[in-house]
Amino acid sequence: MQLVDEFRDARLAKRIRADIEELSTKAGADETNPLQIMEICGGHTHTIFRHGIDKLVPRSIEFVHGPGCPVCVLPMQRVDEFLELAERDSVILTSYGDAMRVPGRNGSLQQCKAAGVDVRMVYSPSDSLEIARKNPDKQVVFFGLGFETTAPATAISILQAAKEDIANFSVFCNHITVPPPIRSILEQADVSIDGFIGPGHVSMVIGTRPYDFIAEEFGKPVVVAGFEPLDLMQSVLMLLRQIVEGRVMVENQYSRVVTRDGNPVSLSALNEVFETRPSFEWRGLGEIESSGLRIRKQFAEFDAEERFGIGYGSSVTREGYRDQYPCGKVMIGKLKPFDCPHFCKDCTPETPLGALMVSSEGACAAYHQYGGFQ
Length: 374
Known about the structure:
Blueprint: H1 10-26, E1 35-39, H2 42-50, H3 53-56, E2 61-65, H4 76-84, E3 91-95, H5 109-114, E4 119-121, H6 125-134, E5 139-146, H7 151-164, E6 169-175, H8 179-186, E7 195-198, H9 200-206, H10 212-218, E8 222-224, H11 229-245, E9 250-252, H12 264-273, E10 274-276, E11 279-282, E12 286-289, E13 293-295, H13 304-308, H14 318-324, H15 327-331, H16 363-370
Parallel strand pairs: 1-2, 1-7, 3-4, 3-5, 5-6, 7-8, 8-9
Antiparallel strand pairs: 10-13, 11-12
């Protein structure tokens, strides 16, 4: 396949759908006992709902939405700490657009901007670096967010800042990694997942090798998938073939982009600039061991936590937040968005109570936009 239309061919989709139905029957699944397949990436969630794949597959298949949206899992404490910088003179805050409306306890970046704070939306950390070059009398702080997909760009910007000796640029690092939360989910006794659709963009960087533990330690099949409708359909079919044939392994449907060992240039930049945090808090999920990245000591001058002393701490309202807003349960598939009592009522894209409703990869945003729940 070479053109986008080929990845959306209705005739092929129907053929794959028939194969999925046949194999799901052989696997012993039906409407009352469906196979639960977790798509880890929020981009996959939006593809599923935008193209109606959840309705195209037989009811013997149930999609479970995983914690694959880095903006959604950002804890309130980290938003609040970044917003503290808004109170300081001569500081320009920069952020990806996805994070502008993520609520902390004291508001959002968008609300700070409306109040007169110099908050600028950027498309990459290199944009922030350019702002720093043009404003040498200001401290420019980039809100570093994302999985292994976006972390290399942040690392390269820090390396460039060091090369040019740009002293007024720093990063508030909230980059996180995909494998640890998957392990955390699988270690929970009340979570039952039959197979995983692995993230495509993250896997472009890290490859498929880091998912081996899912198959080897937990006995669950994994298929790394692309983002077009037929990518997702074929990935479901590949998972079913593993289940029916009794195989458990990591397969790569997205082979046109993803390799076994990932992108060596990106991985080199990551390893040079970042190290693993002992633990990192995920909104609604709590602390997950070795799931976050932090800037190495040799680049401390570009670390906003070191420069401004804002530090890292767990949210003191974490348990209360988890009880009041069940975002964490949605992010690990224990609840569907429409099971939340706030969904499309007091929690909407205009008045979000959680990041899942405002992120472009949030499950609640997908249900709201494509699921007919408005």
